[in-house]
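Something for you to look into today, if you have time. Just paste the record in under my message, thanks.
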Amino acid sequence: MFIMSEDSQRTQGRDAQSSNIMAGKAVAESVRTTLGPRGMDKMLVDSGGEVVITNDGATILNEMDIEHPAAQMIVEVADSQEEEVGDGTTTAAVIAGNLLGEAEDLIEQDVHATTIVEGYHEASEIALEAISEQVSEEVVDDEVLKQVAESSMTGKGTGGLTAESLAETVVEAIRHVELEDGVARDNVTVHTQIGASSNATELVPGIVIDEEPAHDGMPSEVEDASLAVLDVELGVRTGEIDAEYSIDSIDQLNTAIDAEESEVRGYAETVAESGANVVFTTEDVDDRVASYLASEGVLVFEGIGDSDAKDIVSATGATRVGALDDLEEADFGQADRISAENYGDDDLAFVEGGAAAETVTVFVRGGTEHVVDELERAIGDALDVVATALASGEVVPGAGATEIAIADKIREEAAGIEGRKQLAVNAFADALDIVPRTLAANTGRDPIDALVDLRAAHDSTGRAGLITSGEEVTIDDPFDYGVIDPADVKREAIESATEAATMIARIDDVIAAE
C-alpha cells in the first residue's frame, strides 16, 4: 500500500541523522573563523551582485542561501541569540555545531539519541549553574559597561575609531534611555550616513530622519522649537470620485480660483496662527502653503513616514493631530533644536533635545557603504549587550574563560551520573572546548596547547582566558584586562545551542516532497 506520493523522498535511520548533523556542522563551520578579536571577515555576494563584508555571525548566516532544514535550525539559533541578547551569535552557532559533532560520535558508538538528548539537557543545567558561579561580584557601573561594549566590538569593523572610544558613546546612549523599571533599548536608534571619517560618529540626543524642508525659503534651523505632528494634507481638498465642473464665464473661473486660494491660505494661516514654528506632516503640502509658511518663518517637513512620526512624538512629547481644526498648543512637542542639514545628495532633519525627549540616536559616519554597514552592526551589538548587562547587573569573564569553567564543572558533575548518559554529559563539556580552541586558532596559537594551558591556569587560579593585546596573546584573568560579557549572553548561547542540537539529533526520518 502506498501512502506517499511517488515523487517523495525518504531518508531514515542513521542516514537521516548523519545527513542532518552534517548539514548543521557545515553551517556552524562557516562562521567559526570569525570568532574572537582576531576573527576573519566573510565576503557575501548575492545573485544581484550585492556585496556584504562582515564577521557578524547572524548577518553571515542570514545572507547565506541555506535550504537544508537542519542547517536552517542553526541559523535560527543565531537569530534567537540576536533577538534575545544581541550578541554571541557566532558562539551559539559554533557550540551547536560542535554539540552535533559530539552527538554523531556517540551515535556511532551505539548510544541512543534519546540518551544523548537527556545527557545534553542535564549538562546544560549544570552549565547554567556554572555561569552563575562565574558572575562578578563587582557592581556593574559605567566603567564595567564600557568594558562590556568594548569586548563586544573588539575585532569587528569599526573604521578609524577604536572600540574604546565607541564604547563611551554606546554607554552614554544606553544610560540616556535607562528607566526605573529597566532599559528602553528600542529608544536608541542607529542612523548611518556615508561621507566623512568614522571619527565623525556622534551621539544625537534626539532623532535623525531622512527629510528635507518643504520649501527652499524655510529656515534651516529653529531653536526652542514648538512642533506639530500632523496627519493632514495642507492643500486643496479633492473628492474621492472623478468629477467635472463646467465654467461658462471668466467670473466663474475667478470665483473658483479665489475659493481655492482662500482655502489654501486658510490652511497656512491656521498653522501660522497656532504658534507652531515647526510642522511635520505625513501628508503632502501644497507649494502655496509651503511658500506662505516659509515667509512666516515656519519650518515644514512633508510626507514623513509613519514610523518617523511615531519617533518624533516619542522624542518630543507631541500629540499627532488628524484634523487641522483640532490643532491646539497642548498638542505641540518641544525640542531644543530642529535643523535641516545637507550631506552630499542626502538631506537630514535633526530633532534634538526637549523636556520630554526619550530617544537618542547614534549618528554613524564612514567613508564607504561597507564601512558604515559594519560599523552599524558593531554598534548595534554593543548597544544590545550593554542594555542586557545593565538590566541584569550580571557579567562574566570573556576570552573563553567562562566556557573553560563550564566544561570543568560539567566534567566534575559527570562523575556522579550513571549509565551511558554520562558519555553525553562529558561530550557536552568537550563540545564547549570549541570556543577557546577557536579563539586560540584565530590568534595563531596551537589550539591543543592553548587548551591545556587554559585548563591548567583555571585549575590553579579559578579563572583563565585567552587575552589578545596587539600581537601578544596571554593566558590570564579576563577581568584584569576588561574582557567581559553579560552573563545572559552565555546563558542564551547554551540554551539555544542545546535546543537546536537535541532537536536535530532526535530526527531519524526525513520525508521530502518533490
Notes: The chain is about 50% helix and 20% strand. The radius of gyration is 29 Å.
